[in-house]
Each structure stands twice: as structure tokens, then as C-alpha cells.
Write a structure and sequence with these properties.
Layout lengths: L1 E5 L10 H15 L7 E6 L5 H11 L7 E5 L7 H11 L4 E4 L17 E5 L3 H4 L6 H17 L2 E4 L2 H11 L6 E3 L13 H10 L6 E5 L8 H11 L8 E5 L7 H10 L3 E5 L6 H6 L3 E4 L8 H8 L4 E4 L4 H5 L4 E3 L4 H13 L1 H15 L4 H15 L6
Parallel strand pairs: 1-2, 1-4, 2-3, 4-5, 5-6, 6-7, 8-9, 8-11, 9-10, 11-12, 12-13
Length: about 375
């Protein structure tokens, strides 16, 4: 069976959550023993020259398997709905998998599209429309409705997202499969020496609370900073608040707020993947009091590296965090501050959450996700257990 996958998002130079998912699921699909039974075609908008193709293959998997090919399609405006659509219609795979974007629009005859599977990560724009521009909201709603309606199967990354897909897209629940993401199992906790060197490079001499993710209002960073200002009034608390992530929609007001609240709020910008494990592991605790998450992968990553977690009690976050985190009402600044205060003072609590976190992450596995995803792809192609 020939499986086609859009990997354009997986090869982005500064990946965020959906791009990381795309990269990990592709790597683990190719790592399955059953992968040798199939042919794989990966579509990317990388320019078609040897250097780019070679580098792209190296990012996806090394050594490159003989039963896989990288189909590099020249970049252009509306690449998905023009270039990719043309390619999959003219040279159709047995099944097309879209892990981090939208199924190509084939118009007027959508039956020319090969059987397709799409992963839906979240529908947060329904809950927080102000977090997106009007044009972004319009495209997100249209693309989600199109993808979920035309797909043979829909993968949701959490039960919470699956419920939202049913609610907002009005599709049969039997069409949806919940397949959780996972932390990166291969990466052990960094050594104390590496953590110390990374902290020194970022000039982090004090204990710190850590957040990683896009800098945008939906992540509830305004209330997090307000809560941090409250705990700084306690004489026995001397920690920094460190925020890592690329600038997102409406981020400027958050940067201004950080300057007003405290000179101990550090905004690192986008942090290279090589430094994130040490920054996470070196933190006194991790904070993700987000207003909405389709999955919340940083929660698992923090638990994987042995960092206590405080997160919100909404959307998918309780599902992912399990009993290994302090859950707070993200709209209650006092509740966020109290949780931060407890985590900054109570070593026994931190150790309890660390132990529970190590146990919780074992519920999730990229290999398991890949196995379940391959089964969905085979089913969509009409070849169950192929």
C-alpha cells in the first residue's frame, strides 16, 4: 500500500506543537516493523534541489528507508490547494494523511481525492475567537469543516478535542479516533552539568518557574504574570518567571505587561530544541494555566524531565496531566498565585508531583500512537490489518 503524508509542517525551521506532532508521528510510523510492508511518499514544499531534499530526509529519519520517497513540490501561494492537490490527484496514493494542516481542496469533483485521514489538534478558535484575526478564524473554520467532512477518518489528539469535533463539525462519532500524543521517550533527563551550563548561558542564576509555548493571550500569560507579582510580595519567595516561545497574535501587550510587572520576568523568545530539555529540567516548576489546549504536550514534557507541573483544569489538560499536577481555575489569579506559592515553598509536594509525573507519562507513547495511526490509515484505505 502506498501511503502519502504531507510533511511540510514537520520540516518547519522553528516547530511549535502541531509541527512537532507531525515530525514525531512520521518518524515513529517509519520506525514500526510493519512500515516495511508499505511504500511511503512524503510531500513537502521544500524547493526541489539536492541539498534541500537531502537535509529534509535527514530531519525526518536517518538512515533513509528504501521504501520511502520525498516528493518535493516547489513552494507557491496556496500550496496545499494548488500544488499538493494537483499532485495527489495526478499520482494518487492509496491513502493520504494530513497530520498538521488541511486536506487539499479538489474542486469541483472531490471524488478524485484519494481516501484521506486528517488530525485535528484543537478547535480553540470557537472558544476564544479574539485570539485570531477575522481572516484566520474564517479559514480555520472552513478548513476544519472541509477536512472533517471529506476525510474517511478523523484523528483527534484528545477526548476533549474529539468531543469538540463532534459538537462543531457535526460528524459521526464512529468516524473519529482518539490517538494521544506523547513526550519524546528517547531523551533522558539532561545531566546536572548540562542543566547548569544552559542556565548559565541564559543567565538564570535564581530558581525559576518556567513556561514554554507561543506568547499569546490564549495561553493566559497575563494572569500568570499577575499571579507571579502576588507571590513576589512574600519575603521568603525569590524566584524568576521564565517564558520561552515565539511571538504570537496580540503578543505585544504581554511584553509590555512583563516590563510593568517585574524585572524578574524573563522572555527568552523562541528557544532551540537542544536547550529546551535543560531549561525544563532546571526549573523549580512548570506553569501552563492556559485558557484552552487541544492536548498540552508541554505538560507531558515537563513530567518526563522530572519537573512539577501546575496547569489549568479545562479542555484536555486534566486528561493529559492525570493526577500528577496541581490543577487551577485559569480565570482565578489568586488560585494561580496560591499554586505557585505552594510549589515554590513545598519540597515534599514537588517530589510527590515529580514521582507522579514519571508514572503518568508512561500512559503515553509515540510508538503506540504510530501503531494506532497506521491502523487508521489502513482502515481508511479499505485495507484493515494489511
Amino acid at each position: 500500500m502506498l501511503i502519502g503524508i504531507d510533511v511540510s509542517r514537520a520540516l518547519r525551521p522553528q516547530p511549535t506543537g502541531t509541527e512537532r506532532y507531525s515530525l514525531e508521528i512520521v518518524r515513529h510510523l517509519l520506525g514500526l516493523p510493519q512500515s516495511a510492508q508499505h511504500q511511503w511518499r512524503f510531500y513537502t514544499d521544500t524547493s526541489d534541489n539536492v541539498k534541500d531534499v537531502t537535509e529534509s530526509k535527514g530531519l525526518l529519519l536517518e538512515p533513509w528507508p528504501e521504501n520511502a520517497e520525498l516528493c518535493a513540490i516547489s513552494p507557491q501561494r496556496l500550496w496545499t490547494h494548488r500544488a499538493l492537490a494537483k499532485e495527489v490527484v495526478q499520482n494518487p496514493p492509496n491513502v493520504l494523511f494530513i497530520p498538521a494542516h488541511v486536506i487539499p481542496l479538489v474542486w469541483p469533483n472531490s471524488r478524485r481525492l484519494p481516501p484521506s485521514v486528517v488530525t485535528i489538534h484543537d478547535l480553540g478558535y470557537y472558544y476564544f475567537p479574539a485570539s485570531h484575526t477575522w481572516s484566520q478564524r474564517t479559514y480555520l473554520k472552513w478548513s476544519t469543516l472541509w477536512s472533517t467532512s471529506i476525510a474517511k477518518k478523523v484523528i483527534a489528539v484528545s477526548n476533549a478535542t474529539a468531543q469538540d469535533v463532534q459538537r462543531f463539525c457535526n460528524i459521526d462519532a464512529r468516524k473519529i479516533r482518539v490517538i494521544h500524543e506523547a513526550a519524546i521517550e528517547q531523551q533522558a533527563r539532561p545531566s546536572d552539568q548540562r542543566i547548569a551550563a544552559t542556565r548559565q548561558r541564559y543567565n538564570l542564576s535564581k530558581p525559576y518557574a518556567f513556561y514554554v509555548g507561543t506568547i499569546q493571550p490564549r495561553k493566559n500569560l497575563l494572569r500568570l504574570m499577575q499571579a507571579y507579582a502576588q507571590i513576589c510580595m512574600h519575603e521568603d519567595v525569590d524566584i524568576e518567571l521564565v517564558l520561552a516561545g515565539a511571538e504570537g497574535w496580540m503578543s505585544q501587550s504581554l511584553y509590555e505587561m512583563a516590563d510593568d510587572v517585574s524585572d524578574q520576568i524573563r522572555l527568552l523568545g523562541y528557544v532551540d530544541d537542544a536547550d529546551l530539555p535543560s531549561l525544563m529540567a532546571g526549573a523549580q516548576f512548570f506553569c501552563l494555566p492556559s485558557l484552552f489546549e487541544g492536548f498540552g504536550l508541554p505538560v507531558l514534557e515537563a513530567q518526563h524531565y522530572g519537573t512539577p507541573v501546575m496547569t489549568a483544569n479545562n479542555s484536555s489538560l486534566p486528561e493529559v496531566a492525570g493526577d500528577a499536577a496541581i490543577l487551577v481555575d485559569p480565570t482565578d489569579v489568586d488560585a494561580i498565585a496560591q499554586a505557585m506559592l505552594r510549589l515554590s515553598r513545598d519540597e515534599a509536594l514537588r517530589q510527590k508531583l515529580i514521582a507522579a509525573g514519571y508514572k503518568n507519562v508512561k500512559r503515553f507513547s509515540w510508538e503506540k500512537a504510530a501503531q494506532e495511526t497506521l491502523a487508521v490509515l489502513e482502515e481508511a484505505a479499505g485495507r484493515p490489518n494489511a
